[in-house]
Amino acid sequence: MKENLLPLHPGATEEFRQLLDGNSFRLEHIISHGECSPPGFWYDQEQEEWVTLLRGEATLAFDDGARQTMSPGDAVLIPAHRRHRVESVSVDAVWLALHFSR
């Protein structure tokens, strides 16, 4: 089945769509619509996460003070339990996120 990973439709809230799922991995397609992590919220995930930005601009923040600004094509590997959040994101941002265990 053909599908487009770069849709151009407006939305009010962030959209998560699971593309693939296996015993030790999950691949998600995320359309942010400009929605950042809520103030004070940190992701603290059991699995590692490899995330790539397909479209838009974004900044990830980590609880150790590090920041990663992302443009289309950039990818970041986030180790399990490294607390992070989406600090800023453009309204047209589209991501692929692979959550996995080694």
TrEMBL record:
Domain called Cupin type-2: residue spans: 34-97
Domain of life: Bacteria
Organism: Terrimicrobium sacchariphilum
Name of the protein this chain belongs to: Cupin 2 domain-containing protein
Family annotation (Pfam families): Cupin_2
Signal peptide residues on this chain, from the entry's feature table: none
Gene3D superfamilies: Jelly Rolls
Cited InterPro entries: Cupin_2, RmlC-like_jellyroll, RmlC_Cupin_sf
